[in-house]
Design a protein that fits this description.
The complex is a heterotrimer. Chain A is α/β, with parallel strands linked by helices. Helices cover 38% and strands 18% of the residues of chain A. Chain A is globular and about 65 Å long. The relative contact order of chain A is 0.13. In chain C, a hairpin with a 2-residue loop joins strand 1 and strand 2. The N and C termini of chain C lie far apart (46 Å). Chain C has one domain: ABC transporter involved in vitamin B12 uptake, BtuC (Orthogonal Bundle), CATH 1.10.3470. The longest helix of chain C has 31 residues. Chain C has a two-stranded antiparallel sheet. Chain C is mainly α. The chains are: A alpha/beta, B mainly alpha, C mainly alpha.
Chain lengths: 424, 390, 292
């Protein structure tokens, strides 16, 4: 037979044999090493995995560009503790197999100090244990799964999004407050996103409060059958646990069927500029008038944070389209910079995790962060935004979820200080 | 000449082995020779892990796992002419079989490292063999009744349906798939090597266990039968060979190897899920088999290395060259696929036999006339008119 | 009951598009005894052309013409440039080349246009007529229905009622004899490919406005469904493709409606497996026709 490994090994066989001895003498090239990775006197290197290609790229590729722009802004303003932040972005195409590869590359080759804002539930959950075993701080995962809040099992992992349960409960409560007695239905993705969101809705409305529940699978872009079912059930308010693409499909398909219920979408699928692009600029404003979504970041058009982010976007991101992803990406960057500033003059991986757990981080959300030794979730509540005449903004209603119930709370926006560059 | 190309390559390889190492080779039977070679190559590969840093060792483990699947696929396509576009699903079956068995063993008390850990891994591998063998047997039965495009289409539909299956069957864990316990470095070795190198060792040994039987199978009677069935089914049947049985057997053998590959990937990455085993990956396995040279196990190894390393290489190069961010984003992922697609076309049309053939030709240039006398890349033409229905 | 009627109507509309695409596979099969695995990628290229032309001229019909021409031209080029050079005799190399072509075309589209979904508007109103409270077919669905039926009729006439059709069929069935009788076989084969490319482009163009938008992978699932349909109906039978298309469309719609979206791909796989095992050559194919 042809030998099985000629090409990979055979050609280097001689070299290999000789070098093995040498290498063994040097105690091996893969022997365990102990060093403080990712930190030098003037830089801190952090990495992330993002879908830059593939089906999910359309919705999320702009997040990491925004984070990068924010870090460039921080670096241009002296960095944090005099160190500039190097941000390594790896594409995983939203495929867990690639995530596993690129995260190993980030940790072992690029020697990142921490992982920041790794995106997606199936993708990030596949590297959770690996990061834990290698003691890499795994900050501000970009997904609303409740999986990240597990201080016992994964002490280095922290979420960023308000989780799907919180969003589902808050949107459902808003419906109940605004339109008492209306028929509420749920349309969700057929995975943990949809399941946890539904859990939240039932938390607010009771198990029999949901008139109908339909799901979609991302591989099939025809949602006519599901929209037909919801219409037939007489739904008046439809809560969406959908990504932006399927929010657009649901709204578009229903409109084609001559049906227009009230739509309430999770923050993962409720970004107005993105939806307008997907639906087409001619029809979108009419279809999305009154569209409700949840959010927890400063998104109002005339806030000081948005003004700053727009400036940074113009200056460091080539004036790319400014949308919810931009705010999201920059907010993650801000929170990391804040954590790094708190982690001390000479940060270590331990001091970084301690800084997040200290509960002193403020972030820039509309509600205080929940981080503490026993809580690794970022937000326990969301605010309600509504689209009016092409502008998506908060309407004031804000809900927090805790202890199995939903309560209305006052938003507590964080004041912008120091030009958006955290100081120690 | 009418010999099939894989046979030809093998002939060359055998001659090769005699030339370079005549004495021991002559006394050994072909099977012994294969086993000896497998042991030597396995040891060499294990030795080579010392040259690599942890990340490269991780890549090596992934290459070894992929090699299991491409070896099975190259045998199936090259020898029996059955094109499977669904080998990723067979790997997935192995991965899920491994995960289910290991998790069952864990909850039954086989926990921790040492002997218990080893027993758990062995149980996992058995689980992988059972799952992939069962699925492969079913597909083989279908393949025995179906020809070319129908089998390819069926396996294609299977790949597309995999995510739906994992979502619908709760035991498979949906999009996220299943997690398995971490298999750390055994205590005796923990001062010498890190976990990535240990995983590379496991992957290499499992790959050897998966591929060596294929090599034995190929060089023996079974291999002859497969070629006979591919060459001319009617003639094969006349000489007492049952095409259906041979095809099912080939499919099962190929599936078992792929399943072991899936098990290795599951062990190394501590998880198995539908995302890894998508259509793109399935097509990459075909690329590896074709570019390596259909029917050649060495080619399958080279092909596996190519499909694992080229995307990473392309990303590294585009990253280093400093193309604009927007373009880099579009090139990432896509450029490697473009290269693979082009390779697939070029190899099939203009460079029959792939890498294995090219390597053999270079070594034997004086003996071999060039040009049109080379047999086509494809296995020999079956009779021009063939019924689609059996 | 209302629900069943609604799902049947939805399935019919969807199934007709799948049927059209399956028809394009049947045409290639008739011309070259080959399943073109690259058909979806070629069709997507054509829809991108249509998108560009519609964007430039503002006319859907100009875009439609562009799609038909591009589909035909690309497929003809594929046949002349690649398929003709493939070693004959075994279906294997042809399939492998087609798969290579899928990878090349889709990644090239990805590099050129990025991952975004580009919204495309339908030329007709997509709001369905409501009959007795149940939304049924929309004007757009009726348009698709008309196009599909007209095309099947046209192709039946072309293949069975014209000299050209006879030559096309003869070239595929018995190339040597046809050549002896003066048929320009290579030209006929190319013509078959071009025709099939145009039909596939049309099907994909009709599909995209009902989905998220145009993207390099827009027609992937369409191919899988159409392949199922082609197998169901028999690769040789245009009527089989039409009926099979409607069957698959209705099946997907009913399963999605009653059992959930996640079950639909499994139902399609189960149907395909069942048909292949019970009747490997399709339900509507006569035994002798395929033997060529």
């Amino acid at each position: 037979m042809r030998n099985p490994r000629t090409a990979t090994v055979g050609t280097t066989a001689g070299v290999a044999a000789a070098s093995v001895v040498a290498c063994l003498a040097l105690a091996g090239c893969s022997t365990p090493a102990a060093a403080a990775p990712g930190i030098s006197d003037d830089t801190v290197t952090v990495g992330t995995h993002q879908p830059l290609t593939g089906p999910a790229a359309a919705g999320y590729a702009s997040i990491s560009a925004a984070t990068k722009a924010y870090f460039e802004y921080v670096n241009a303003n002296g960095g944090v503790h005099g160190r500039s932040i190097e941000y390594v972005v790896k594409d995983d195409g939203y495929n867990p197999a690639n995530t596993q590869t690129v995260v190993r590359e980030l940790v072992q080759e690029d020697q990142v100090f921490a992982l920041l804002g790794g995106l997606g539930t199936p993708t990030h959950s596949s590297v959770l244990d690996y990061l834990d075993q290698n003691d890499v701080p795994d900050l501000f995962v970009a997904s609303g799964s409740t999986m990240w809040d597990d201080p016992e099992g994964h002490p280095n992992t922290f979420g960023f999004n308000a989780d799907y349960v919180v969003e589902g409960a808050a949107l459902a409560q808003y419906t109940a407050d605004e339109h008492a007695g209306s028929k509420v239905c749920v349309f969700g993705q057929d995975d943990d996103f949809g399941a946890e969101f539904l859990e939240g809705v039932e938390l607010a409305l009771g198990a029999d409060g949901v008139t109908a529940h339909e799901s979609y699978s991302t591989s099939n872009q025809d949602v006519t059958a599901q929209m037909g079912a919801l219409q037939a059930a007489g739904c008046e308010d439809v809560l969406l646990a959908t990504v932006n693409g399927f929010t657009a499909l649901a709204v578009g398909t229903a409109a084609k069927m001559g049906w227009s219920p009230r739509w309430l979408a999770s923050s993962s699928g409720g970004d107005y500029p993105t939806l307008v692009e997907l639906l087409g600029e001619d029809v979108a404003p009419a279809l999305l008038q009154g569209f409700v979504s949840a959010n927890y970041l400063p998104f109002g058009p005339d806030g000081e944070w948005v003004e700053l982010f727009e400036q940074i976007n113009d200056e460091y991101n080539d004036g790319a389209r400014f949308d919810g992803n931009t705010v999201y990406g920059m907010s993650v960057g801000y929170l990391f910079a804040e954590a790094l500033a708190q982690a001390g003059e000479d940060p270590t991986r331990e001091s970084l995790v301690e800084a997040v757990e200290s509960g002193k981080l403020e972030g820039n959300g509309i509600l205080p962060l929940m981080f503490g030794p026993d809580d690794h979730s970022a937000f326990d509540g969301v605010g309600i935004t509504v689209v009016a005449d092409g502008v998506q903004d908060y309407v004031g209603a804000t809900y927090a979820v805790g202890g199995g119930k939903v309560t209305e709370v006052e938003p507590q926006p964080v004041e912008l200080r120091g030009g958006g560059v955290p100081a120690p | 000449m009418t010999a099939t190309r894989p046979a030809e390559t093998e002939e060359i390889a055998v001659r090769d082995a005699r030339c370079s190492d005549p004495r021991p080779a002559r006394r050994l039977t072909p099977t012994q020779r294969i086993l000896l070679r497998a042991v030597v190559l396995t040891l060499l590969a294990v030795a080579a892990t010392f040259l690599l840093d942890p990340y490269r060792n991780y890549q090596l483990a992934v290459v070894a796992a992929t090699f299991c699947a491409t070896a099975g696929l190259t045998l199936l396509v090259g020898l029996t002419g059955q094109l499977s576009l669904g080998h990723a699903v067979l790997m997935a079956a192995g991965g899920y079989g491994y995960a289910l068995a290991v998790n069952a063993a864990s909850s039954a008390g086989l926990d921790g490292g040492g002997a218990a850990g080893a027993a758990r891994v062995v149980l996992g591998l058995v689980g992988a063999l059972v799952a992939s063998g069962a699925l492969g047997g079913l597909l083989g039965l279908a393949g025995a009744r179906l020809r070319g495009p129908y089998l390819a289409g069926l396996t294609l539909a299977m790949v597309v349906a995999l995510p739906a299956l994992t979502t619908q069957v709760p035991a498979l864990g949906g999009d996220q798939g299943l997690a398995v316990p971490f298999e750390g470095v055994p205590e005796v070795l923990s001062l010498l090597i890190v976990v990535e190198q240990w995983h590379a060792w496991v992957a290499i040994v499992v790959a050897a266990l998966a591929v060596t039987p294929l090599a034995v199978l190929r060089s023996g009677r079974a291999g002859l039968r497969m070629r006979a069935v591919h060459g001319d089914e009617t003639a094969a049947r006349l000489s007492g060979v049952s095409p259906a049985r041979v095809k099912v057997g080939a499919f099962v053998a190929s599936s078992l190897a792929a399943g072991l590959g899936g098990a290795v990937l599951c062990l190394v990455t501590q998880s198995v899920g539908p995302g890894r085993y998508d259509l793109a990956f399935s097509l990459l396995l075909v690329v590896a088999a074709v570019v390596g040279g259909l029917g050649s196990l060495g080619g399958a190894a080279a092909g596996a290395a190519l499909v694992v390393l080229l995307p990473w290489l392309v990303d590294t190069v585009t990253g280093a060259v400093g193309v604009p961010a927007d373009l880099e984003q579009r090139l990432s992922g896509n450029l490697a696929v473009l290269v693979f697609g082009a390779l697939l076309i070029v190899v099939t049309l203009a460079w029959p036999g792939g890498l294995a053939r090219a390597a053999a030709r270079r070594r034997h240039r004086p003996h071999r006339p060039r040009g049109r006398t080379d047999a086509p890349a494809a296995p020999p033409p079956p009779p021009a008119s063939q019924p689609l229905e059996r | 009951m209302d629900r069943l009627v609604f799902l049947l109507a939805t399935g019919l509309a969807r199934g007709l598009v799948v049927a059209l695409f399956a028809l394009s596979l049947v045409i290639v099969w008739r011309a070259a005894r080959l399943v073109n695995f690259a058909q979806a990628a070629v069709a997507t290229v054509a829809v991108f052309a249509a998108f560009a032309v519609t964007g430039a001229t503002g006319s859907f019909w100009a875009g439609l013409a562009a799609a038909l021409l591009t589909g035909a031209a690309v497929n003809a080029a594929v046949e002349r440039g690649l398929v003709r050079r493939v070693p004959q005799g075994s279906p294997l190399p042809g399939m492998i080349v087609a798969i290579g072509l899928v990878m090349v075309l889709q990644s090239a589209l990805g590099i050129a246009f990025g991952p975004r979904h580009r919204p495309m508007a339908a030329p007709f109103d997509e709001r369905p007529f409501v009959v007795g409270g149940v939304p049924l077919l929309s004007p757009y669905d009726l348009f698709v229905l008309t196009v599909a039926l007209a095309l099947v009729g046209l192709l039946a006439w072309l293949f069975n009622g014209t000299t050209l059709g006879l030559q096309l069929r003869a070239s595929a069935a018995a190339p040597e004899v046809s050549r002896l009788l003066g048929v320009r076989v290579p030209r006929m084969v190319t013509l078959g490919w071009a025709l099939s490319g145009a039909v596939a482009a049309l099907a994909a163009l009709l599909l995209v406005p009902t989905e998220l938008g145009l993207n390099a992978h827009s027609a992937d699932l369409l191919f899988v469904h159409a392949f199922t349909v082609a197998v169901l109906g028999g690769l040789d039978s245009p009527t089989g493709a039409l009926i099979g298309g409607v069957l698959v469309g209705v099946l997907v719609s009913l399963v999605t409606g009653y059992l959930g979206a996640g079950v639909a791909p499994l139902a399609v796989l189960a149907l395909l497996t069942l048909v292949l095992l019970v009747r490997p050559a399709g339900i509507f194919a006569a035994a002798q026709v395929r033997a060529a």
